[in-house]
Amino acid sequence: MTELFLHIVNISISASWLVLAVLLARLVLKRAPKWAHVLLWGIVGVRLIFPFSLESALSLIPSAETISPTILTDGIHRVYTGFPTLNQSINPVLSQAATSTTDAAPNLLEIWLPVLAVLWFFGVAALLGWSAVSYLRLRRRVATAVQLEDNLYQSEAVLSPFVLGLVHPRMYLPFYLDQDTMEHVVAHERAHIQRRDHWWKLLAFVLLSVYWFNPLLWLAYLLLCRDIELACDEKVVRGMEPQQRADYSQALLSCSVRRPAIAACPLAFGEAGVKQRVKSVLRYQRPTVLAVAASVVVCAIVGVCFLTNPPIPRGFPMQGHNVADLDPQEITEQIARIERLQDASTLNVNPDQFEVRLNADFQWVDTGTVRFFYWQNQQSYSAQLQLNLEDSTYTVTQPTTCPEQTTIYKLRDYLEALKYLPQEEIRRLAPDADQFSITHVAEGAPGGNHSITYTADGVGNINSWLIHLTVLPLYKTGDNEYTSTGDGFIHLFYGAQSAQILATYWGTDNPGQLQLQSPDTTYSYDAPCLQLLNDGTFIWTPSSYMSYIAQGYYEQTEDTLTLYTNDGALLYAYDKAGDTLIYHSGTTFQPLITQRPQLPST
Predict the structure, then answer these.
(1) Nearest-angstrom CA–CA distance, 14 and 48
(2) pLDDT tens track for 349-359
(3) Helix (H/G/I), strand (E/B), else coil: 234
(4) 519 versus 441: which is more confidently predicted?
(5) What distances in angstroms separate CA 420 from CA 243, 387, 457, 465, one per listed residue?
(6) Taking the complete model, does pTM exceed 0.85, yes or no?
(7) Which residues, 6+ apart, have CB-to-CB distance to 536 below 8 Å?
(8) What does the alpha-carbon distance between residue 243 and residue 553 come to, in Å, rounded to a whole number?
(9) Which of 274, 396, 512, 536 has the most CB atoms lying inside 10 A of its own CB?
(10) Spatial contact of 129 and 205, defined as CB atoms under 8 Å apart
(11) How far is residue 163's CA from residue 169's CA, in Å, rounded to a whole number?
């Protein structure tokens, strides 16, 4: 229900911009025919009804999806209002609210979003229930009405004329009306029926019930009811002489002497905004062709600009020009949003990466480029993240299809490896370097004086590496000319601080059988390896010379071991036979080891 609620909130926010536009358009079309105002509110209704919209460069909606409906499951604790400054003010607060005080405790978002979703649901149910009860009570009140003709009835319980019913609407009049007033009232109510106003008002109230939390939509509903009455009046007095319009206005005043109790029922029509209606009737002039044309043009412009969604910008601001200023989470989430991926973790890179050039202070030397890949709709795509230093922005190029990649690493891991470069250690090994050329490589093992292992917390030991970078110190030899010397490459191995390893299993095939590592076990570093950690997670590497490919959590009993992805999908199940794990094929959900990007979850 939380995802549905957030989806409703996003539609409501988009519709709010449209309501503001309609309020402005009503001022522009003040002397236009009143049906144009009703048509403008109809455009708002279309925006509220349809859960999708076409993209257009003409769209004036700042953001089509301000809040991710899957904010609780995909880890994207950010809003996208369409205004970067506003995003920068809200997102830190939102991220703090999404942080738990303990690992097991839910955060504020996990607490309040479901609560708000439940409140929204009960609000919808209350309004719709109140509407149904009001309708039934009104039906009982007019059950003794006297039929005058066809669908025209009179009742002593009626204080002001109204139309009631959907398929076979009836007009109900009070007994106190004289003949002349009755003729005008009947003409007005019949105009309502001809215009199907009893349908449109019901639809508007249902939408209001769904979006009851938005005050702008309450205002829109009230103005719609008033505009419906004005448009109906115009339809009736279109062919009247001035004296007839005066009589019609008098009929409106006579009906407004007593406030109708049926105003509480959203399905019934009664008087509304009589003072404005009388002025409109008395001042009525047949609209000119130019006024009608202008009304159509304004409605078309509003529709094109506010019924469409803006294309997602393929650029976003950089936080700074130092490699340490990278924000891997923000970057990957922005790319996932641009490419419409549900999971940013499906973004990958391969070792065939562009060179990264940094100066001695680890600032970007020139425009950098990071090539990434993802798997979507059974097809592999490639695009580039470009760093534009002049305007301090990132740009994501248009994706193109590409061959399936055979060796992949997580884009976020690669960006983190750059962000947390051990700058002091690199300077210590190459103190006189003017620039550094950094390259991503696929294989290798830590060891030697020019090898550094590090994590996000700094230089330190790691259990397995995620990204292997080579740093080549460069020295200036002339204008914009740099060369390397005999210092050689510096090998950087970036890894995550891991929990304590409880057990390590090695195997010769995938998934096959795995053997528990012991002092007497002989194994190959190029063999598949499964590590079970004391925090309930596992790490699988196809080879110790490569970064791990899969991770998740596990459950085990005395006889079985089951591996799951982080989102709870079953991967592999094994039967235990002493120190050996035997693959149980009957419970396999999907391959654990794969060289293609993980498919986005749906």
Answers:
(1) 9
(2) 988 777 889 99
(3) helix
(4) 441
(5) 84, 18, 8, 14
(6) no
(7) 553, 554
(8) 83
(9) 396
(10) no
(11) 6
Two tokens, residue 8: 């409703």
**Measured distance CA(575)–CA(560) in Å, rounded:** 5
Extract the tokens encoding 541.
């590497």
In angstroms, the CA 342 to CA 169 distance is 48
Residue type (1 letter), 205: F
Q: Which amino acid is at 8?
A: I
Kindly report, residue by residue over 558-598, the tens digit of the pLDDT: 888 888 876 667 778 888 888 888 887 665 444 443 333 33
pLDDT at residue 261 in the model: 41
Which residue carries 């009811």 as its tokens?
225
Q: How many CA atoms lie within 13 A of 433 on its CB side?
A: 30
Report residue 235: phi and psi, to 5°. Answer: -65, -40
- Beta-bridge partner residues of 395: 315, 386
Residue 174, preceding bond cis, omega within 30 degrees?
no
Q: Which amino acid is at 32?
A: A
The answer to whether residues 154 and 175 touch, using CB atoms and an 8 Å cutoff, is: yes
Tell me the C-alpha to C-alpha distance, in Å, between residue 210 and each of 123, 130, 213.
8, 13, 8
Instruction: Judge if the upstream peptide bond of residue 114 is cis by omega within 30 degrees of 0.
Output: no
Residues in the chain: 602
